[in-house]
Amino acid sequence: MPAGGVGDTAVALSFSGGGLRAAAFSYGVLEGLRDQASAPGRTLLDEVGFVTSVSGGSLTAAYFGLHGVAGLSNFRAAALDSDGESALRLSLFNPVNLARLLAGGLNDRTHLHGWLEGQVFKGATFGDLLRQGKPIVWINATNAAQRIAFPFHERAFDAICSDFASFPVSEAVAASMAVPVFFAPVVLQKFPEACTQPLPPGLAPRDNDEHKRLRAALGRALRDFRDPSTGRYVKLIDGGLSDNLGLVSILQSRILLNTPYGPLFESDAVQLRRMLFIVVDAGQGPRGAWGHEVTGPSGVDLASAAVDTAIESTMRMSYANFAAMMREWQQLIVNYRCGLPAERQRELKQANPTWRCDDVQFSLTQINFDDLGAETEAQLSAIPTRLKLSKDEVDRLIAEGRRAVGRDATVKRFSVDLKP
Fold this sequence. Notes:
Blueprint: E1 9-15, H1 19-34, E2 48-54, H2 56-71, H3 75-80, H4 95-102, H5 109-121, H6 126-132, E3 136-143, E4 148-152, H7 154-159, H8 169-176, E5 186-189, H9 212-225, E6 233-237, H10 240-243, H11 248-257, H12 266-269, E7 274-281, H13 299-338, H14 342-351, E8 361-368, H15 374-381, H16 391-407, H17 409-418
Parallel strand pairs: 1-2, 1-7, 2-3, 7-8
Antiparallel strand pairs: 3-4, 3-6, 5-6
Helix pairs in contact: 1-2, 1-16, 2-6, 5-8
């Protein structure tokens, strides 16, 4: 969790992709956190300091980041009950649309962005989001050329030497949701002549490097941003193609920063005692009854299945790798704190008499449709990945997201541990 001023307790979230299905389920999870107590007069929703998101989940994350706990109740009217498809081209069989498809996507910037800007975010920039202070939100897209995650945060814009604060939140969410074929890529401009800062320390090669390929990919991308001969534009597509849980950008940041505590600030790492990280997955299970016939599936269905396969297989590995990274991250922070000079440790104890260098505990849990029973899982998975859902579908997703939080043993244990 990269924000400053974390304190000793933090809740972090990741919201998966999945259109309004993911947005509504994630909203239900936030409402579920409102039901869980933390310190006196506070709930776990008040403790959320960081959200990383992909695609449909970015709708909820960005709105929460802009409006906070107080404004969250307006999200349903602004996004979930509106029609994000009214201006979209969706048919692959219209001859005119085939020409558009060859040009980059059925829908250009004006279609999806028009709904996001006009209905949901209404001119908000990342400067507005940063002024809120908490939670910090990372919206994740995919750098199509370099095939790595592109998170919308200050360090990523420093890498392309562009201004982050003035960038529209709606553009970032559109990039995170830009499913290939249906949407043309979102285009960022890079300014290589302005890039004079040294490359991050984490790019240096090392022996027995388990992240060798990712480190190399990050190095190629950062050098590309600084190279005028490669052009001036970065093309971004759906974040789910690099990681539909929005977790890999945290690993990328840890690699680049090359500190025991990053992307946490050092001042937060020495104060933090408890962090709960909740991964919210609103993805669908396997679909299609292809085994009943020799023929099929259609080319369109097969292309869709290929994308779904890439996303699903990446998600399985992403969560497992993130769990291992969380354990290592916790231990590295403990080692760092216990290795601080004795004078610094005395200062921390004077500020907080209960402080101990080894008193750090990271908890991780995943909330998804599977947690709610086979029948409910099947019903929720049947809700399509669309930008327009019925009122009943939205009601159900919110209610089940809220219920899933209340059933989660890790969340309940974290809540109980915080009570005096």
